[in-house]
Amino acid sequence: MAASRLLLIGIAACLSLTSLSPGSDRPPNIILFFADDLGFGDLGCYGHPYAITPALDQLAREGSRFEQHYVTGVTCNPSRTGLMTGRFPATFEKNTAKFGFQGRTTISELLQHEGYRTGLFGKWHIGPQEMAVDGTYGFDVVQVIGDSREATAGRDDDLTDAAIAFMRETQNEQPFYINIMGHSTHFPVNPPEHLVAKFRHLDIDRSRFSDRMQQRIDRAIEVGGDFNSSMQHYLADVYSIDLNVRRVLEAIDELGIRDQTIFVFSSDQGPAPVVYEPKGIRPYSENMIGYAGIYRGEKHTQWEGGVRVPFIIRWPGKVPAGRVDSEHVTSFIDWLPTIASIAGIKTLPENLEGEDISSVWLGQDHQRTKPLFWNNGSPAGTIALREKNWKYYSSPNSPSELYDLSQDPEEKSDLSASNPELVSELEAIVQQWRRQLPND
Questions:
Q1: Which letter does DSSP use for residue 374 in this model?
Q2: Which has the least CB within 10 A, 14, 86, 230, 232?
């Protein structure tokens, strides 16, 4: 069945390409550069007091950056699952890390059907490793590429090379869709010394970071003892991301396709924690000091610091330049319907949980109609809900919590006791969604 499906998609792609001949109008190229465990506040343009990220800062000036953008999971596979399918990971019958997407249509399949050449480079984490081959999920080319730690541009150097080569091979033939799945700043943060050297002069003043960051700094000091060195290493890894983003942007300009290319930069979840293990402290744990800005929580948590991430998009002449969108709530659950809309795809998979937010990308107003959900672990576990300005946490084993993010983005003041009617309303939404989840 899988082989037949791929054959049909391939035939359809060939037919679709007849309408994308050279000189005709064609949909834009699309590149997603996905960092790993990069915190909301880890870039200069998102407020880090010491980060050196000139390429990403320039990208934000040339495009739009969003301040209320969310991922669909708090670890690697769930985050990528929602992005690829437009379905929250908890809704799948089986664990997607072990069993893949179980017949769900992906954005890459939809685009391939429309004549796009599609590629994934870097980290996989969207199913078992044996699935990481050309053709899976509609990716024409799959290259799982690990760290290149001693390379000039850090550990994502090789995978960026592969993505750029794919661009060069494709750009004159058909539109392309590329997922660049980086490794920085995932554990372990241990960049090469030539990158760390750029930050050796820094004397880090911890008071320049938010109150929420202070506990992470304390843990890093407890583990490693030298906060300056820890931050220098982390900043070097972030800088390596910027170097590779610059390389992709320069390649876009060299190929003369800037105006025809949507470039998106984001992260798969919040910063990873400093980890203690029963047998001792893991090497380089002291370097895991990503910055979530003012937000509470980190990777593995449903708090804002775990699920709110940077999101920058550039599409010259279409996406407003220099805009900071702090109003609209967006998510990678919206990626599939939004990209499909931009590419002119009319027929979408059923039961999508995201919505088309292309109007938001293009600088227009949009009233979100669908809530956002996060579920850690089993269907009986905690479910977090974002509905309008409210963030609500529902757990069968502990009291619910409610926060008004418009007034309390740091999630300091639980309002559940003073808003019983609202709690009942939000709990009903959660329970309706929970009933749709597969049995544990």
A1: E
A2: 14
The CA distance from 148 to 233, in Å, is 16
- DSSP calls for 318-362: TSPTTEEE-S--EEGGGHHHHHHHHTT-----TT-SS---HHHHT
Q: In sequence order, what E strands does 108-267 have?
A: 117-122, 141-144, 176-181, 261-267
For the full predicted model, state whether its pTM sits above 0.85: yes
- Residue 272: DSSP 8-state: P
Separation of first and last alpha carbons in the chain: 28
What is the token pair recorded at 29?
Answer: 């190229």
Dmax over Cα atoms in the chain, in whole Å? Answer: 63
- With b for 16 or more beta-carbon neighbours within 10 A and e for fewer, the 400-423 pattern comes to bbbbbbeeebbbeeebbeebeebb
Question: If you count them, how many residues does the chain have?
Answer: 440
Nearest to 179 by CA among 203, 162, 193: 162
Containing H/E element for 220? helix 211-224
User: What does the alpha-carbon distance between residue 344 and residue 324 come to, in Å, rounded to a whole number?
Assistant: 27
What is the Cα–Cα distance from 422 to 294, expressed in whole angstroms? 26
Q: Are the beta carbons of 184 and 155 closer than 8 angstroms? A: yes
Long-range contacts of 224-227 (CB under 8 A, 24+ apart): 224/285, 224/286, 224/287, 225/286, 226/286
- Model confidence over 339-379: pLDDT tens digits? 999 999 999 999 999 999 999 999 999 999 999 999 976 66
DSSP H/E element including 70: strand 69-70
